[in-house]
Amino acid sequence: MNRPRQPNEPVVRFIADAMLGRLARWLRILGYDTAYEKVITDEALVEQAVREDRWLLTRDQNLALRRLLRGRHTLIRSDDVEGQLHQLHRDLKIDLNLTHQRAYRCADCNVTLTASSHDDAASLVPPFVAEQYRAFLQCPHCRRVYWPGTHWQDLDRRLTAVRARSLDTQP
Ligand SMILES: [Zn+2]
User: Distance, CA 111 to ligand 1 centroid (Å)?
Assistant: First the structure.
């Protein structure tokens, strides 16, 4: 499930405000480096965006210090994560394919997942999963193990629906 990043692929990095935790998790699974803190001041948010050259995603129309971002931000309009992904797909051309070329990132930690051997992963997943799947990825930070199971198929189905919606709304 993991493929190396292509040499010419542009690196897009995001930072999401405190209202956008679910969106941050989806972006990480989609391989986008996305900083997110549940509790962060506007000042710290903007400062980190500038310092780390991250594109700010915010729900806050009146975000203080917005001018410091020099236009490198998107005001997210929708309350639901599918609508938010649809907006980013339309406006920033983010790739909503789960079989993408970027390295997958841990939804919790934003750390790049690494391949885990079947033996190492087997002790950390339910027995039926260890029996059914051969390829696993693991977060080197929190040790969470990822595999292309039913949850993955559900994400894929939902992303496919968002992509279809994007086609519908093209001029
Ligand atoms: Zn993790």
Answer: 6
pTM above 0.85, yes or no: yes
Distance from residue 110's CA to the centre of ligand 1 (Å):
7
Is residue 8 in some structural domain?
A: no
Residue 45 neighbours by CB distance under 10 Å:
25
User: Torsion over CA of 76, 82, 86 and 92, rounded to 10 degrees?
Assistant: 60
The answer to whether position 3 is within a domain reads no
Q: Which residues place a Cβ less than 5 A from the ion ligand 1?
A: 106, 108-109, 139, 141-142, 144
Residue 91 domain flag = yes
**Owning domain of residue 71:** 13-168
CA dihedral 148, 1, 104, 84 (to 10 degrees): -60
pLDDT tens per residue across span 102-154: 899 999 999 999 999 888 899 999 999 999 998 899 999 999 999 988 888 89
What distance, in Å, lies between the first and last C-alpha atoms of the chain?
Answer: 34
Whole-angstrom Cα distance, residue 48 to residue 41?
11
Evaluate whether 105 touches 83 at the Cβ level (below 8 Å): no
Number of domains in the chain: 1
